Structure formats: structure tokens, C-alpha cells
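User: Show me a protein chain along with its predicted structure.
Assistant: Here is one chain, sequence first, then C-alpha cells.
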Amino acid sequence: MKRQRLIEVARGDAPGDLLFTNGRVVNTLTGEIEQTDVVVAEGHVAGLGAGYQAQEQVDLHGRYLLPGLIDAHTHLESSMLWVGQYARAVVPRGTTAIVTDLHEIANVCGMAGVEATVRAAASLPLEFHLMVPSCVPATDLETSGASLGPSEIRRLSRLPQALGLGEMMNFPGVVSGQKDVLRRIEAAGEGVLDGHAPGLRERPLNAYLAAGMRSDHETTSLEEGREKLRRGMYLMIREGTTEKNLEDLLPLVSDLTYPRCMFVVDDRSCHDLLHDGDMDAVLRKAVRLGLDPVRAIQLATINPATYLGLRSLGAVAPGYAAHLMICDDIRDLQPRQVYFAGRLVAEDGRALFPAETPINDDLLHTFRMGPLSPESFALAARGPTYPVIEVVPGQIVTGRSIEPVLVRDGQVLPDPARDILKLAVVERHRASGNVGVALVRGLGLKRSAIASSVAHDSHNIVAASADPSDRDLYAAVREVARLEGGLVVVADGGVLASLALPVAGLMSPEPPEEVSAALRRAEDAASSLGARVPSPFAVLSFLALPVTPSLKLTDRGLVDVERGAFFDFGVLAQT
């Protein structure tokens, strides 16, 4: 028996499989650094101390040995990499376990897509844990490709990889006690209940917590975070590609609060994974901002493991999984070697395992488009003013304003001189022909159009344009559909750059290096047209998310998120 051999090795009565000597072990359980040897057997740490023997010995020469990093809340789809290529990007960065809410795939392909992704990940040297998507679709104000109700949640919750219910984005439904929302929570059973509660405070926060939610990754301010910690929430401090909350929230991490805090990335692009890093990049930034490096490591290892009930993860200690990382300097954490279950799987930033994983047919050919023409993007004037979605730099929330607009022949036109662009969301799951059109400020395009099938959370096609004729807008949307998903930049009717994402319209099966290069070309092309925000496609993708304040657009129209309803254009008459 494996357990019996592990005990024998721990006692020193049998040799282990692997022995690390002359290392400095980061003890996440006590916050210490120990100079000691570590013996591994049967994929687990058997013991720490001198005098152990093993079949293979690794002299660390004073380097640090620490547990593999855990990303407690991520959507791997946002990397734009299919699961094997995603592992190839993050494992060399020291991430050996992820907890992913696959609601992006679920909104396109339903339960079959979730199950296919879980199966595809089974052979990878990456612990793949699932939070069952709770809000598919996120609201009834948009059109998604699938729906997961209580019966589907119960089925997915029985998967061995499932830890609980993914982020409950419909926090208004929870607070108001909507029966269908509560049935979904109950269907998840006794697992962890992740929250999603941007800006929620006071009695509404109490009500949300009373329903069982125990974490939040949408906090953006100190006072909001402090109140959530006081009321019992675990605070997930997010540092992704678009959403950057680390610098603002780090002062909340103290000797008293740190056990209730953890780092997550939520959404991180393939380009950032490849060139900046994954959880390791978050730790480096936290240390640069003044956090003790051992404390930073705790927030990415033992803290998430404790919250999620992953009892064998998060520490270098007897009985814990031998998911380990070796680095020279924990203040500038750059993994030299990564071990998974005691096996070397990455070295000097290079994956040592195959990345090819099967792609189920359920995840391919997911586009069903209704009739479309340039005239589909007309925006009828409702007077001299119109509501404008305001991009907030570094956040997925938006502001709002009512602005005077350019009008010709009864139609509102983009006004690139004032950075007011036309925004469109085109339904692509059910061939309904729905097209939502609105205005947005903050992207910076001076001409032409960009479009993407990565449009949280229903992943219809979202596009922005400075072209008054709407021809570039139409061309960009049609090219995304032709690619069966992707990012597109169009100018004067021609495609300047594109990235094909044929897996559910969200991911590519190509290597991270190729996907990153194509993404960079698309972003550079958008910048050449005037886009002034970092990661313009990431910013674009969240303009269609109708569960984060304040004003968003779906295929069915402009959404006032605070009201949980379509925008009331009657207010224009009062301005």
C-alpha cells in the first residue's frame, strides 16, 4: 500500500523516491524558513530532517524549497489557451493547482463543455479543481448558448474535481431571496460557496452572507474589503490582466487578517502568463509593494488550501502532496524547477510534459448567427443626448454619463474626437439576429473597428467602432464569425490583424507563444487605430458583463446593472 510505504519512509525504515538536501524550506504553516532536508515518496512529502535516504538526491545548494502555488479563483478560458497549453504556460511559473469556474465554456457549451474540459485536464501535471458554474446565464437580460439549472448543478457537483459552487454573480437575486437562485445554491450541497459581490455593503452584504457565500474577488476599495472581512468573508485579492486590485487592497493584509486573505488572478491573458507570469507575478508585485515574502507565499498556498478544504496542498510537510517549487530568491520569485507529485515537470521556465489534450466536438463549431448587415448596427436617436458607458481604467466596473451626441438622419453616430464610440453586442448562439447597440467612452479608437467573441459571460460577439458608416463594424463581426471565434481588427473594410479562437469561440489549441504573438499583433493593430487602454480586447470583453456595475450592453440592450433591468430611457427627457 502507498500509505504504508509513505509511513515507512517517514520513519526512516525505507528509502524514499527523492531527497532534497541543503535547502531552505519555506514553512507556510508557521511562517518560518527552515534549513532542512525533505524526503518524498509516493508523490507526497514523507518527512523533514537529516539522515533520510532516497533513490534520487537533489542538492539545492541553499536554494528555497516551497509548496506549489494555488490559484484559488480563475477562469482558464480567459488565457485564450486550451487546457493543455494553459498548463504549459502556468506550471513552469510554479502554479501546480487551480480552482477554475468554467462558466465561460458553460455559457457557450453547457454541461457537456464543462465535463469535456475536466476530462481533458485529467492527464496534466496540474491539480484541476472545479467550482460548478452557478449563473449560466448570468442574468435573464442576455442570450447565452446554454443554461445550467439545479439538476445540472447537482450532477456537476458530484464530479470528484468539484469543490463547490462557483461565484454567485446574481447577488441581487440572493439578497432578494429569489427562489430559483436559492435552489441553485441548495443544489450544490455542502461544498464551498464562492461569492461575487462588487460594492455590496451593510444589510445587503449581511443578507448575501446569510445565504452562505464565503468569499469575494470583486472588492476594489479598502473600506469595502474591511467590512467584508469583518463580516466573515475570505478576501480574494485579485490581480489579473484587466482587473488590478492588489495595490489598493494590500494594506488590508495584517498579522490579524492575513489568514482570511488570498491572492487570485481571476482573468489573465496568455500574453501576461507568458511574459509576466501567473501567481508568481502577483507574489513578486506584492513583495515589491512591501509584503513580507513568506507572508505573500502563504496567501498563495496554505490560505487558499485551508479555505477550499484542500488538505494535502499548501505546505511542505509530512503527508502533503509533493507539488514543489525551487527558486533562488523568494523576494523575486522566479521558479527554477517545479515538481508535481514528486516528478520534475518544468525547469527554467520550460514545461517538460506534453501539452496535447483532446478537444471534444461539443467545443467546436459553436457559431449560429442570424441575419446581419451594416444596417443592423443603427442606433436611433432619442433626442440630443444619449447614455454613455464610461470605461474605468484597471477595473471591470464602468461608469456612466449622459452626453450630447452627433445625430444624422435620426441616427446617433460615433464621435471619435470626443472618444465616444459605437458599441455593439451580436447574438451568436441561437441565430436570433439580436444586436444590442450603445455608446462607450474610454477605448480611444480614432477610426475603424475591433471585435471579439470573448464577451463575458455569454460570449456573444462584442465590437467597438469609430466608423460612422458601420461598414467596418459589420466587417469585423463577420470576420469573427468566419473564424468560428476570435479577435479581429478591421480598417477600411480589410482585416489588419486577427487571432482565431475556435474552441468555444474562447480558446486556441496552439502553443502559448503563438497565441501570445497573435494577441500582441491584434493589440498593436488596435493601438495603431488609436486604442489607448492596455489590453483593449480584455477591456472590451467586460463591457458586455451585466452583473458588474454600472452600465453594460448585451445583445438585448443597454443594462442598468444597479437596477437589474434595461436602461430607462425616460431619464433622458429629464436631462
